[in-house]
Design a protein that fits this description.
- By secondary structure, this protein is mostly beta strands.
- The protein folds into 3 domains: 1-126, Immunoglobulin-like (Sandwich), CATH 2.60.40.420; 128-317, Cupredoxins -  blue copper proteins (Immunoglobulin-like); 335-547, Immunoglobulin-like.
- The chain is 7% helix and 38% strand.
- It has helices at residues 149-159, 307-315, 378-387, 481-485, 526-531; strands at 3-17, 20-27, 36-39, 43-50, 58-61, 87-93, 99-105, 115-121, 135-144, 168-171, 187-191, 196-203, 209-214, 219-224, 227-234, 236-239, 244-250, 258-267, 279-285, 295-297, 335-346, 361-366, 369-371, 430-433, 436-439, 444-451, 460-464, 469-476, 495-496, 498-501, 505-512, 517-523, 534-539.
- The longest helix has 11 residues, at 149-159.
- It is globular, with a radius of gyration of 23 Å.
- The chain starts with a strand and ends in a 20-residue tail after the last strand.
- The mean pLDDT is 93.
- The structure holds CU-O-CU linkage (C2O).
- It is found in: Secreted, Extracellular space, Apoplast.
- Lignin degradation and detoxification of lignin-derived products.
Amino acid sequence: GITRHYKFDIKMKNVTRLCHTKSIATVNGQFPGPRIVAREGDRVVIKVVNHVQNNISIHWHGIRQLQSGWADGPAYVTQCPIQTGQTYVYNFTITGQRGTLWWHAHISWLRSTIYGPIIILPKPNVPYPFTKPYKEVPMILGEWFNDDTEAIINQAMLTGGGPNVSDAYTINGLPGHLYNCSAKDTFKLKVKPGKTYLLRLINAALNDELFFSIANHTLIVVDADAVYIKPFETDTILIAPGQTSNVLLKTKAFNPKATFLMAAGPYVTGLGTFDNSTTTGILEYEGNPTIKRLQLFRPVLPSLNDTSFATNFTNKFRSLATTQYPANVPQNVDKRFFFTIGLGTNPCPRNHTCQGPNGSMFAASVNNISFALPTTALLQAHFSGQLTGLYSSNGVSTQKKNRVFTTDFPSSPTHKFNYTGTPPNNTQVSNGGAKVVVLPFNASVELIMQDTSILGAESHPLHLHGFNFFVVGQGFGNYDVNKDSANFNLLDPVERNTIGVPVGGWVAIRFFADNPGVWFMHCHLEIHTSWGLKMAWVVLDGKLPNQKLTPPPSDLPKC
Ligand code: C2O
């Protein structure tokens, strides 16, 4: 591979949407941000310079970061943030991945405007395992807020209430013609008849899973999270925040002399914090007569809470599992975990008025632990812990604590109950601080994630940094180890980095802990992350030189 250099200047920029101008944090003044284009095997070097008042860090969502954990980006997990006037160089190699991923700010809610695509082409002379597209089109779905998103999340955390919802969904930063004064801010895709287009779809929305459809056109899904899948046809895509998917769009053989709308709107299962609106774009055939008014076709999206569509759609994803693109599914398990994933509440502090349910504060947790980020980076603490003998050589931690995190994250929930029955009276979440799970190098891990349904059942797109995992099972109700594990797909399960824990159900994933470092895992609904639906895995070094985390780069930001 070759080395590709990028420079990201973080700066403010006035942007107008919905007839409302605001100053937003951007990369290089662009919204959405610039594309990163590389080939599998290339090294990517991005110099990030922070010219704004906020602290910044950038995450390369879905990049494996083998041995390069210092470049992963989540603030207070793998690095301290880049402060005003400071610079940090992210440096990583793309290994064994091709498709579409994306980058976004990973501190507070700044990812609402700081995001862009990562396009990973196959190695030179390696074709796609599907029809060669005539053109490739990155399409990022997002959310636009008229108000400042930092103010929104600060207010929500202070009052314990739900945050304000966005004012529009967007396609490539554009709300589309259904929104107030947005006709000119409508994404337009001009196509030729009889061709195949590759749409590189990304869901960069903060808080909503989205349906996406194009009127009178079938889509063929060929990849998920930069891994090829067995292609399947669909009229509508469901894509969760954090997920990416490449889909083929075959245009009509002859110019249909019509205009087709594309649309994206939310899939919402839980608490009703959503904006029931639709972003639109236009699919237009080249060579249409410009004067004549063309017939307009509109797509039909599933209804807001169509969980049966969601289930059917998710079940269609299968790994290619060929000799060229094998599915390296762990067949045996070294470490088993059962995590409850859900919302709850914490009591309102004394002499305070709170706007959560019954005067409480909203909270969220994994195994009843509402994770709190430390004020320095976990990875640095881990790295120095390795040097000072925090862990024994077989991967067991010899002490419970260093000063930054503890290693006693529970491997199963601290309170058990019937997760799909009547919610218990006690919906409280404990504040667990920074507790992590330590894994020996290359352990094969099975993780069951169960939606708790404590406070309204909700689908949670869980994202794991540093790994792809295999989705070996999924179901509704309470996970039953005897019944459900017998039906796991260990042959061709889909491999991805973000998967929905279904509303009122569970998902089972497996992965090899083959990447030393500290790896964040969280719900990619941003408000849930803010409320504490997050945790971290520590993966210890292996014995061989290429199984060790490298020392930190000299420009690693300080807290
Ligand atoms: Cu796309 Cu931790 O994030």
